[in-house]
Amino acid sequence: MDAPTPTFQPGPEPSKVEEELSQAGEVPASGTGSFVGATEGGPPLGGDRGRFKRVRVAVESNLTAELDGLVTAVDTILGDPRSWVAGGAYRFQRVPWSAPHDFTIYLVTRETAYGMCRVNGVDIRVDGVPYTSCRQVGKVVINLDRWRLSVPSYVDNQVPLKVYRAYVLNHEVGHELGRGHVGCPVAGGPAPVMLPQTLGLQGCTPNPWPHP
Prior knowledge:
It is a single chain. 36% of the residues are buried. Strands 1, 2, 3, 4, 5, 8 and 9 form a seven-stranded mixed β-sheet that branches. The longest helix has 16 residues, at 161-176. The termini are far apart. It contains five helices and nine strands; from the N terminus they run βββαββαββββααα. By secondary structure, the chain is α/β, with parallel strands linked by helices. It is globular. α1 (67-78) packs across α5 (161-176). It has one domain (35-199): Collagenase (Catalytic Domain) (3-Layer(aba) Sandwich), CATH 3.40.390.
């Protein structure tokens, strides 16, 4: 008697790995107020023309575990063809902490961010809590709360945390490049990157890029 021909039984469809909307774990509210900078530089970002900006990257000294991830994010986001390098307008290069530079990107706790942002009267608090990030002259200050937790307008729309991180970096770097805030031009359309999306979308949809 011949053995029955085995039939193929497909296994279950592999489940799609969901990208995190926010990062689990406790977020420290305050830190040392001192900084640790990346000691190595990075590759040129952008084409062979455009205004050249040298960028340092640093974290508050109690956040050293965040430094490598911040370095990778800065290189990836600022080097993306949808970022400020689009069309040859700008070029960036990450430089070592001790090198001459045009501006520095800092990742800091919310209380340190509040102190850094208040220098020229910028108040980043919402309901008394330091909430947003900011830019001061030569300083892009990223609030650790937002870097890890994102914001309701992104989380509620199931937008991954890495997309919010691209937004907040591009937005604050945009201020350093001289851009101001704008509103939502068309309801239901992508938000301009200089719309303050951390505080709401004004009827637009989330968008992290200057040139999507």
